[in-house]
User: Which sequence fits this backbone?
């Protein structure tokens, strides 16, 4: 059961995006080789333009994982009527490697929030078998829960999120 001090509960990731789960694999997400994604930390959109490195530590080479990156706050956190917008899906990631060894099911779309502070959530699922995950029909109105159910992925094995908001010209300097 998720504790109230869990940053995924505090950030409403558990509840709005995924159900409570017990992490069983370590996932390390970094942008530009050195910017580690930690729950609730803020990144400028200009810092997350390129595909992040996502390492999966746990499982073994016979285990395969699916990574989903989603924004549950589209178009804005006060009225997220397009919830969720999926930014990236990688499948068939072998355990003990990084996402680049997997298969890109949906290409990376860099975060570009226009209104308010958005959460960008990385969720990792363990697959039952290789090449068993299907791409969603659209990026908007995505549901991480429904995607997991339709692809028989079960509960997540790891998750992390960061916040981002629109950059003004002054903030980019």
Assistant:
């Amino acid at each position: 059961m998720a504790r109230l001090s869990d940053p995924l509960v505090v950030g409403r990731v558990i509840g709005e995006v995924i159900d409570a789960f017990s992490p069983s694999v370590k996932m390390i997400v970094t942008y530009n080789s050195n910017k580690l994604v930690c729950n609730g930390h803020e990144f400028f959109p200009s810092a997350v333009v390129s595909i992040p490195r996502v390492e999966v530590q746990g499982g073994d080479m016979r285990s395969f994982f699916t990574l989903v990156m989603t924004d549950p706050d589209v178009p804005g956190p006060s009225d997220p009527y397009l919830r969720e917008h999926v930014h990236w899906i990688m499948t068939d990631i072998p355990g003990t490697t990084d996402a680049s060894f997997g298969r890109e099911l949906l290409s990376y779309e860099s975060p570009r929030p226009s209104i308010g502070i958005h959460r960008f959530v990385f969720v990792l699922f363990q697959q039952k078998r290789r090449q068993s995950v299907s791409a969603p029909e659209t990026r908007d109105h995505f549901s991480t829960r429904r995607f997991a159910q339709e692809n028989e992925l079960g509960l997540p094995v790891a998750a992390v999120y960061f916040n981002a908001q629109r950059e003004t010209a002054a903030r980019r300097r």
In short: DSSP finds four helices and eight strands in the chain. The mean pLDDT is 92. Strands lie at 26-31, 35-36, 53-57, 64-71, 85-94, 103-106, 117-126, 158-165. The longest helix spans residues 144-150.
